[in-house]
Model the fold of this input.
Amino acid sequence: MYRSGHIITSLLVYIAIIQYCYSNLFSDYLLPIYLIVNVFGALTPDIDIYLKRIVKVVSHRNPITHSALIPLALSPVITIYISYFQLYTAFSLGISTHLISDIPSRKAVDRLSIGWSRVWLLLNGIVALPIFSSNWLYIIF
Ligand SMILES: [Zn+2]
Done:
C-alpha cells in the first residue's frame, strides 16, 4: 500500500475508535497532536525504505519494522508515564493498521513466503493493537 493509503486507513480507524471509546476526545485540544502521532505511527514500519539506503542488509518489508516490536517495547514506558497513554494509543494503532493493511499486498515480508508473510502481518497487527500491546506484561507475567 502507498503512503497516502496507510495514512488515510490509519486516520479513519483511529477516528472511528476514539469516537466509539472516548466520547469526549473530540473536545480535547490535543486531538490534532494525536492525529499527527497516529500518522507518524502509520508511516513508521516503512522506515525500512530509508534504512536500506544506509544499512545494506535491510530491505523493504523488513520483519523487524513490520512487527509489533516498537509498541511492545514502548509499553513498559507507558506503564510509568501513564499521562502519555493517548499518544501511545494513537501511535500503536497507526502501526497496527499499517501491518493489517499490508496483508493483501503481493509483496511478502522479507525472508518469508507470501503465506507466512500474511500470518506474520496479521498476528503482529493484532498484537500491536494498543489494547494488547499496552497490557502484554500483565497478560504474560
Ligand atoms: Zn509496509
User: Anything to note?
Assistant: The chain has a mean pLDDT of 91.
